[in-house]
User: Fold these one by one.
Assistant:
Number 1:
Amino acid sequence: MHPFDLALQMQPRADGRLVGQASRDYWNVVGPYGGITAATAVQAVLLQPAVIGEPLALTANFVAPVRPGEFTAQVTLERSNRTTQHWHLRLLQPNPDGGDDVVLQAMVVMGVRRDVWSGLSARAPQVEGPEGLKRRRGRDQIAWFSRYDLRFVTHPFKVENPDEPIVHWVRDDPPRPLDHPALTAIADTFFPSIFAHRGGVVPVATVSMNVYFHCSRAELTALGAHWLIGEGRSNVFHEGFLDAEARLWAGDRLVATTHQVMWYRD
Amino acid sequence: MHPFDLALQMQPRADGRLVGQASRDYWNVVGPYGGITAATAVQAVLLQPAVIGEPLALTANFVAPVRPGEFTAQVTLERSNRTTQHWHLRLLQPNPDGGDDVVLQAMVVMGVRRDVWSGLSARAPQVEGPEGLKRRRGRDQIAWFSRYDLRFVTHPFKVENPDEPIVHWVRDDPPRPLDHPALTAIADTFFPSIFAHRGGVVPVATVSMNVYFHCSRAELTALGAHWLIGEGRSNVFHEGFLDAEARLWAGDRLVATTHQVMWYRD
């Protein structure tokens, strides 16, 4: 089984909650990679018997560090109509006092797509293919970095103009057919452009992450394990919090847009 | 009292919930203007005794049409630490069966700003001032439209290139000092660029709205009733759902960025 699918495995409990394990395969420095936690939220909704449509929007708020070991997903259907469905989700982990701590809260909107006029307004990036580019490697202890084949078209922090988007190619390693949870996790592979502004890595942490999905399950399945191009930038770094916005392309197909608010220290 | 402050008035109940009235002053076609409902969510959090810091991020999901009359805000503090605070909110309205319907669910992140390096990456728009521009009027029955002095720099649907951002000036009418709830409501004044693509108004409805705040309360207070410049665009219109992203500027100060997923019919 692919490490991504292993990471997202959850078992239903009698009370309807889902139980999973924080993935070591996607471990970051002090907890799991944020993208895998966000993907878990999408997956927990997709596993609900009442779910309709396709993932349309996710907002995942990183409430506290996720610790090693078990977590529980508490998923609530707030409202459902013919076209959209609104879910709320908490990821819980046991605390030393015998209770549960919320470590993530998220909202997922499901939507039923329809055969109406569609169009693209953003311009697809014209960049060299991934073949000739060097794969970026992280330090050995950062497990999640080995789960993605990341190839930067623009250097993530040595750039002439730090206001230009940072562009990278990305694909699961090993390659894996795309779906909405995978796209969610990939939406967190962007390097914060504050590194380019400050000329190196500074401490950052995602506070809130937003993903808008612009493709159906069938379209993703047809793409298979397609290379994606990411274009990411920030608008502002202000008194300890910055924003980030990014697009994910499969060729000239815009598959997702994503936004973050991050905490930073300088 | 300013109609905006009247619209946001809520009374605490014994169980901690807040009770308010859907504002007629900000009425849209079949319910209140989405921006006033989103602003209500921010205000309901700001009224909580345990609140710390400044609004950092709001995601408001429009779960069902808000009806005339009373609503109740149920606000939950999911987690608090030294730097951030995570809130969840439901707006409820009574249904004919004697129960409550969720009409909005939202998450608000509060953050404590710090005196660290700050910077701007986005470029402020260089546009003519609002003085020489004609105010855009809506049909008389659309009350919320009279609550904003909206002056378009680019025509909202007759444009040469519908992929270019739509730029407008906006201010509360009557003018009112800025704060985070006001900024939230203003973040919903953008005209969807699908009107430009389709050459006229088509039915749209916001499904999810995101606001990232890039200024403190003190900075907003110093700005007073400043004119804001909005730059809004869409990336994609796909099978019944579109995205929108926008920036709000006070001169060369980026005060907020905002994103939406909207349902559309064509």
Number 2:
Amino acid sequence: MTEKRIISIGRQFGSGGHSVGIKVAEELGIPFYDRQLINKIAEQSGYDEKFIQSMEDSGGAVKHRLSYFLMGRDNNGKTIDDYVWDAQKKVILDLSEKGPCVIVGRCSDYILREREDVLSVFIHADFDRRCERAEKRYGKTDTPIDRRVKDMDARRQARYEYCTGRKWGRAENYDICLNSGRLGIDVCVSTVLSLVKESR
Amino acid sequence: MTEKRIISIGRQFGSGGHSVGIKVAEELGIPFYDRQLINKIAEQSGYDEKFIQSMEDSGGAVKHRLSYFLMGRDNNGKTIDDYVWDAQKKVILDLSEKGPCVIVGRCSDYILREREDVLSVFIHADFDRRCERAEKRYGKTDTPIDRRVKDMDARRQARYEYCTGRKWGRAENYDICLNSGRLGIDVCVSTVLSLVKESR
């Protein structure tokens, strides 16, 4: 296989995909991009950073695929989301050109799908494990954790499917999918690192 | 994680999952069950071996989920397929009790889902790669290879979804999913072996 220079990590909310990404980047000594992508997408699109963030993880983001079709379109037939998507693609393609790195989420598996030097990873875990992990990480709020995890799942799925035309969570979208709940975060990290090293 | 004694391998037709399974079993020095399961299921269910085989991979098998609901039922409300499914579950559970082994397909991921000592693997690959591999392995026939691969996909999906109630090909059904087209068979084998060894 071609040497894997870029690691794209898709993840279910609460699965620990972010932690896997950080550790892989640290071990390989390469840059890590997760929420940092938001600043870059904001800069590229001209929209406010807070707005981009709200599209991702707050009540401002649309939850259902249908909502995307009901959004307003400008004279070019494009929605705000289309412009954000264009910026997102450009940011991720530019980063992957710049050099080795780890990119978390933002449909990077799809955006980089043609590149042979990308290792495309998906981290998932059982629902209960994800709730437990998410509550530990993000704390308690008035909304019960299972509701928050389900909402985030729905939003990520809707945006992924709208932007990529692919079904979210299907094994065939990725080179490797790992269940962090059953295998543990450290084993996910070592498995990804082995693949990267084996490709060299 | 718990020591992984049983390796269950689900696979897309033409992905090389069978080869991955054989090599893993050889390396670990443990029994390998793929088509051998057919004899055992035939014996357990009392149906003819050829009939069981035809349900799996010939024109005799049903291709669409709907067909299952149209099948005849006996006084217990069970179809022939239900009886085969009962036998299949018993055979696979018994084998997993007997000792370490590699089991390919037959919904073994689902049947063994409660067991912590099972490593549940799914091998997949791009459609074109699978066609190429399947033609090399099974030879040419009057039916074009892309048609044969699509038919087999449809049959496996229908049977999996009818028996398990799960969506076929979803990452979350497995501990690890590997794209053999992008990673190569040998890397799939070494990745599975590493996980087994890491669990000890």
